[in-house]
Design goal:
single chain; alpha/beta; TIM Barrel; Rossmann fold; 3 domains; eight-stranded parallel beta barrel; 27 strands; binds zinc ion; signal
């Protein structure tokens, strides 16, 4: 039996591109921007540089860029670099950044794809790279924000999204992929999609067609710091990789992280999130940055034994003869940490959240849900199985969505919709499932009441939370979780039984990050309601994420600045085992929190401590 498993798994791993390398469960690569490739003509200098670099981190592969910011590669330097890296046993592939110049008229100035001269140039750039490489990775600038006179005229009455996606689909095939294939039929052209997936279509990234127009995709997993201009939540470093993999399963070839985080731990966390999403390859952007000396910003949690252990990393570096600590060194330390448990994890599984292609609404909300411990897997099609489906406003783009919800519920699959989804669908048939009104009135709530057995208990929120006031037909549906302000209240979670399953409306705060201000008991209740098929949830505060896998393992990651004790709630089980230390933890059995319309079951709760900005992986022993 074991042999069969081995034989069936190996070809799959090869297909996924996982080859044995310097790390056990993934390949590490770095990307060299063209300005740096052009300095690689001096082999002696390169040798000295590389030998220092590889003491810190061990790349299996390197991407050498041939174009960026109107800089072409010096082909002589490129040839020297290719020969050099191959002689070191490093796989060498190409990269291109299709952008015109730095910031002149806009912050990020892209190419104009309406301009005939630029189109000639783009084709030429693709052909040059294909001469040298069997794989070309496009850095995430294959979009356009050009509003020049040509583009304005060509757009006509269409929306920018419609005009740009059609233009870039066509340009991808005609100017980039076909010319590369013509020069080198073996050449795979991979498009890297950035981290702002919610807004892609407006700038021409077409998630419906591009994964097949190109030979595959790559994922921008860089979330950096939510305080930055993009305000991306750390959970996105996991969820975006999964989402892009679901666009064309098996054709998401890697995740990509840069060193833009404020703290070293946050840099490491992004690498871990990418790896926990089970990427076969991870790119450190970029070679120059990874050679850079770290900024060791003081961390309030430095006294704790965190997953990224600065002192341990420093001692380990010294033992390798590394005295100057670089981002590459931090990455290597983080890789080794995750590599210890990755081989034991199966395929990630989360609550499916359907996002139709090129849709927008309640931007990035799924990542906030991930940050409160609700595991979410964004998928581009409405799930076929009778499992709990989560729909945010973005799902309202599907013209058949009400019919799909209706069918799903009649077949016994549960559906959770957000207040934003309900609002978008109001008057479009959603009332036939559950009759509510998303009013124009808002409420500033400070208390939330959750079920506790047959009782209900009030809890104070960490801040005042503004929510939309939703009304409903009493006894058509009922408040499972209620909010209160000055003696009046509105639903936070509304439940209705339709056909053969529960239909929930989850009222989302106007400020999504106020989800983090919900009391633990409210979060616990929400997670319990969302946990139908996953069979696992956590109890505790926000900003602890749960990553369940299909083989009875899971990872928890705390993004908090102080240690946290959480409960892991499994269906009745014997024990859980720490995948790194081997520590076995015993739990306590109880009856699961009751959800009407579902079967009752017994659960086992395990108390687990997670250090700040740290992860722990576990396997669940279900034997009796
Ligand atoms: Zn233009």
């Amino acid at each position: 039996m074991k042999r069969t498993v081995l034989f069936s798994v190996l070809p799959f791993l090869c297909l996924m591109g996982v080859k044995a390398g310097n790390y056990k469960n993934f390949r590490v690569t770095t990307y060299v921007i063209v300005q740096d490739v052009n300095k690689m003509g001096d082999e002696k200098k390169l040798e000295a540089e590389w030998s220092e670099f590889t003491k810190s981190v061990k790349p299996d592969k390197i991407y050498l860029e041939t174009f960026r910011d109107m800089n072409f590669v010096d082909e002589k330097a490129l040839q020297t670099a290719i020969k050099f890296f191959k002689s070191k046993g490093v796989e060498v592939e190409g990269g291109i950044t299709f952008n015109s110049r730095g910031s002149v008229t806009g912050r990020w100035e892209t190419f104009c794809y309406s301009n005939p001269e630029t189109r000639v140039l783009i084709r030429k750039i693709s052909e040059i790279a294909a001469k040298y490489f069997d794989e070309i990775l496009l850095d995430d600038f294959y979009f356009t924000n050009c509003k020049c006179k040509l583009c304005v005229a060509a757009k006509g009455d269409q929306s920018w999204a419609k005009f740009r996606t059609a233009l870039l689909d066509q340009s991808a095939k005609e100017l980039i992929v076909d010319p590369a294939h013509a020069v080198n039929p073996k050449c795979k052209v991979i498009v890297k999609f950035p981290n702002w997936y919610e807004h892609f279509q407006g700038l021409g990234f077409d998630l419906e067609k591009m994964p097949t127009i190109f030979d595959g995709v790559y994922t921008g997993d860089e979330t950096r710091d939510p305080k930055g201009e993009q305000h991306l939540q750390p959970y996105e470093s996991f969820s975006i990789y999964r989402y892009f993999n679901n666009l064309r399963p098996g054709y998401n070839f890697g995740g990509w992280v840069d060193n833009g985080a404020s703290y070293l731990d946050m840099f490491a966390e992004q690498l871990w999130m990418t790896l926990f999403a089970k990427t076969p390859e991870i790119t450190m952007w970029n070679y120059g940055a990874m050679k850079g000396t770290i900024r060791d910003t003081p961390r309030s949690w430095s006294k704790y034994k965190t997953s990224f252990d600065y002192d341990d990393m420093k001692a380990e570096s010294a033992s390798r003869g590394v005295t100057r600590l670089t981002y590459g060194r931090v990455a290597d330390y983080a890789f080794e940490k995750a590599d210890k448990i990755l081989g034991k994890l199966g395929t990630p599984k989360g609550i499916k959240s359907y996002k139709p292609f090129n849709s927008v609404g309640e931007d990035f909300l799924q990542n906030y849900m991930g940050m409160i411990g609700v595991p979410v897997e964004i998928v581009p099609a409405f799930p076929e199985n009778n499992e709990l489906v989560l729909l945010t406003e973005t799902a309202s783009k599907d013209p058949d969505i009400v019919a799909k919800i209706n069918k799903h519920l009649l077949n016994g699959g549960e559906v959770v919709v957000t207040s934003g989804f309900y609002h978008a669908m109001q008057g479009k048939g959603i009332e036939n499932i559950c009759e509510m009104v998303y009013t124009d009135r808002k409420a500033d709530i400070d208390t939330i009441i959750v079920p506790s057995g047959w009782w209900r208990k009030p809890y104070k929120t960490a801040v005042t939370i503004k929510i939309p006031q939703m009304t409903y037909m009493t006894n058509d549906s009922w408040e499972e979780i209620s909010t209160l302000s000055y003696g009046n209240g509105w639903p936070l979670l509304q439940r209705n039984y339709y056909g053969a399953a529960n239909f929930f409306v989850w009222v989302i705060p106007e400020n999504f990050s106020h989800l983090y201000a919900l009391p633990d008991a409210v979060l616990n209740s929400l997670r319990n309601f969302m946990d139908n098929e996953i069979g696992l949830h956590i109890e505790g505060p926000s900003q602890v994420a749960l990553f369940p896998y299909d083989n009875g393992t899971f990872v928890v990651e705390s993004f908090r600045d102080e240690p946290v004790t959480i409960n892991v709630v499994t269906r009745k089980s014997k024990s859980i085992k720490d995948l790194d230390s081997g520590e076995v933890i015993n739990g306590t059995n109880s009856q699961g929190e009751r959800v009407l319309g579902r079967k009752n079951y017994e659960v086992t709760k395990y108390s687990v401590v997670v250090q700040p900005h740290s992860f722990r992986g576990f396997s669940v022993d279900t034997t009796n």
